[in-house]
Specification:
Blueprint (H helix, E strand, L loop, with lengths): L19 E2 L7 E2 L9 E2 L6 E2 L11 E3 L6 E8 L2 H6 L13 H9 L13 E12 L2 E3 L8 H8 L3 H8 L2 E20 L2 H11 L1 H4 L7 H14 L3 E9 L12 H11 L3 E9 L10 E2 L3 H8 L1 H14 L4 H23 L1 H4 L1 H35 L3 H5 L4 E5 L2 E5 L7 E4 L5 H4 L2 E9 L8 E6 L6 E10 L8 E5 L9 E6 L6 E11 L8 H9 L1
Antiparallel strand pairs: 1-12, 2-11, 3-4, 3-9, 5-8, 6-7, 7-9, 8-9, 9-10, 9-11, 13-14, 14-19, 15-18, 16-21, 17-20, 18-21, 19-20
Length: 526
């Protein structure tokens, strides 16, 4: 017989698409409008479905939780990123984000969009009082409507989900809340540093409602002393019709609110339908990463409105950015409604819109950081710039620095910023002049060119010959950083010639165009 034969089998392994596992008892979420006990939610589309629980036979009962609890918080934030991470501002994820819930999320929060302050260092101080009221919940094994119960009895989970979605409202929590957020802005690092020192948070931080008056007085006194602007906003939740909201007297307003408010419906606890029937599927045919990003939309909506309000720009520009943010969220909501019908066709559209929102957040934070960079370099002292170099001589023009053999450049300010993140551009001005017998040449390198407008944040002076024979360059008596025009004087060494370049890293004066919102508008039109 012949030798061994080898049989080759070719096959393709088909990897099933990833699925999303749903929590059976998700944590409390913000209560959307018009949600009642037994109402059901589709976790993919975020839309409400039919009531599944017969509340005439299984009514909600008050949950015994002991005494009604109160809590007080005081927070200080040095950046918007710290604000985003704070649980105190109630930036919560949510299964459901219909258009009316979006409207609520951007009204119940902090929006400094109309503030006149466009360029300043900011810090934030927050006080919050909360009172948890009674809650009500359905029984653990509620009575369902006949049609719903029959579908479960027949294990017809597909049609059950088509009618009743994925979750039902099991419990509703009540709460009263008063939050005040001060935005404190100063035009210099020094003013903000002195403001914080005089405020003495360690001594004056309130530990309860009665301590707010002392803190507010210290805040106002320190702000007045150090030329710092205060802007305060309230965010309240609860029934307190007779309270007068006075932004010039936060302590009195808060005391009045806390004394008279009645907790109202605030959060909802959902139960997955698998809690009604053993064996009910707990997975969705949906990419888990996309699902989680959709859930986070309600949290980012509130934060982005806040972030836009404290980002540089005129009130008109901030208003324009705000409208686009809401427009993209509305787009996501509409596309999300299509997810069940069109599947992956709408997934891509939702994904693109979410990426647009994330890019806006990224750009807004970059604009805040860019503002701080501009203010930082603007407040740089000339003496600090001079200290970076070895001064050859001084005259009425300023401090002259000698070109050094082997040194390729002299730099000060921010000269290594990420251009894609901060929108920084560079202009180079060069002068090359041959020597003139028995004559020292003096020349001014001027920034900017006639057609360019921008704020200088970094300066690089380059002796192009790099052999130490270019001569001298001058640090003038005025700080060029943070300005829109300046000059750097250069002069030759004796009657030699010279070859100098001035490279200026600058930020264009544009505000709205820097956001590159035109790309997002094109996405919405596609």
């Amino acid at each position: 017989m012949g030798g061994n034969s080898i049989i080759s089998l070719n096959y393709t392994v088909v990897t099933p698409p990833p699925k999303t596992g749903l929590s059976t008892t998700p944590p409390p979420e913000p209560l959307p409008p018009n949600i009642t006990f037994g109402r059901t939610i589709n976790a993919v589309t975020g839309q409400t479905c039919r009531n599944v629980v017969d509340t005439n036979k299984s009514s909600a009962k008050t949950v015994e939780t002991g005494q009604v609890s109160e809590a007080f918080r005081f927070k200080q934030f040095s950046s918007a990123s710290e604000v985003e991470r704070s649980i105190a501002l109630n930036f919560q994820t949510s299964i459901m984000l219909p258009a009316d819930a979006l409207d609520v999320s951007i009204k119940r929060g902090f929006d400094f969009s109309s503030s006149k302050t466009t360029q300043a260092f900011s810090s934030f101080y927050l006080i919050q009082w909360e009172k948890n009221g009674p809650s009500k919940a359905l029984p653990e094994n509620p009575t369902l409507y006949h049609d719903a119960q029959k579908l479960l009895d027949d294990n017809d989970f597909t049609n059950f989900r088509a009618s009743y979605g994925d979750y039902y409202v099991h419990q509703i929590l009540t709460r009263a809340r008063f939050t005040a957020l001060w935005r404190c802005t100063g035009t210099t690092e020094t003013s903000m540093r002195n403001f914080k020192t005089d405020l003495n948070v360690e001594l004056n931080a309130p530990g309860n409602v009665s301590g707010v008056a002392r803190f507010e007085t210290a805040l106002k006194n320190s702000a007045s002393k150090n030329n710092v602007t205060l802007d305060v906003q309230f965010d309240t939740h609860g029934s307190a019709d007779d309270v007068t909201y006075n932004q010039s007297d936060v302590s009195a307003t808060m005391t009045d609110f806390c004394s008279n408010v009645t907790p109202v419906n605030d959060q909802v606890l959902y139960r997955h339908h698998s809690m009604l029937k053993a064996g009910y599927p707990t997975e969705l045919d949906m990419d888990p990463n996309l699902y989680m990003r959709i859930m986070e939309m309600s949290a980012t909506a509130s934060f982005l409105i806040f972030l836009n309000g404290v980002t540089p720009g005129t009130a008109a520009n901030r208003s324009q950015r705000r409208k686009l943010i809401v427009k993209i969220y509305s787009y996501i909501i509409e596309r999300r409604k299509e997810l069940e019908e069109t599947g992956t066709t709408s997934w891509g559209k939702v994904q693109t819109a979410i990426e647009a929102i994330e890019k806006i957040r990224y750009r807004l934070l970059a604009l805040l950081e860019r503002q701080e960079i501009v203010l930082k370099v603007t407040n740089t002292k000339v003496a600090d710039i001079v200290s970076l170099f070895s001064v050859d001589h001084k005259d009425e023009s300023g401090n002259w620095i000698n070109a050094v053999y082997g040194r390729s450049s002299f730099q000060f300010g921010e000269t290594a910023l990420d251009s894609s993140l901060y929108g920084v551009l560079t202009q180079t001005i060069r002068v090359e002049i041959p020597g003139v017998y028995l004559q020292q040449i003096v020349y001014a390198l001027n920034f900017p060119s006639p057609s360019l407008k921008g704020i200088a944040v970094g300066v690089t002076v380059v002796p192009n010959w790099s052999d130490g024979t270019d001569g001298f360059w001058c640090i003038s008596k005025a700080n060029p950083l943070g300005t829109t025009s300046f000059k750097i004087d250069v002069k030759s060494e004796g009657s030699r010639g010279m070859d100098w370049s001035l490279c200026v890293d600058y930020i264009p004066n544009s505000e709205y165009a820097d956001m590159q919102f035109d790309n997002f508008e094109a996405m919405l039109r596609s």
